[in-house]
Write a structure and sequence with these properties.
Elements lengths: L1 H20 L4 E9 L6 H12 L8 E7 L2 E4 L5 E3 L15 E5 L3 E8 L1
Parallel strand pairs: 1-2
Antiparallel strand pairs: 1-6, 3-4, 3-5
The structure holds zinc ion.
Length: about 110
């Protein structure tokens, strides 16, 4: 389950930010997941408490937001919504839509003490 290693990265980032910004406890973590990121929200929720145990985010609430995927055609340069990584352009009908957003996960917001 790669969600666990993603969460371990999140925990490392939180610990680094805590040192940099001088907070000692995280109240709430908002993660933004792209629709095409292949990350299961349920797996994140399941793993969150396990990974954050004994860390500064041990009691933190996890908020998950979904980000719609968008891409741009390499041929006609139109932007469009994407529902798969191999998409045919809806404007010119060719393959080759480059993803603009929606294939990653990021920490969107932190509430800290
Ligand atoms: Zn096109």
């Amino acid at each position: 389950m790669h969600e666990l290693s993603l969460l371990q990265n999140v925990r490392d980032i939180l610990e680094a930010e805590a040192l940099k910004q001088g907070f000692c406890k995280v109240r709430q973590v908002t993660l933004e997941i792209g629709e095409l990121a292949c990350i299961e929200a349920e797996a994140l929720r399941f793993g969150f408490d396990v990974v954050m145990k004994d860390s500064l985010a041990a009691d933190a609430e996890l908020v998950i937001e979904h980000l719609a995927a968008r891409g741009r055609c390499r041929h006609c340069h139109q932007d469009m919504a994407m529902d798969g990584l191999q998409q045919i352009c809806q404007f010119c009908g060719q393959y080759g839509v480059d993803i603009l957003q929606g294939d990653t996960m990021k920490i969107k917001e932190l509430r800290v003490i």
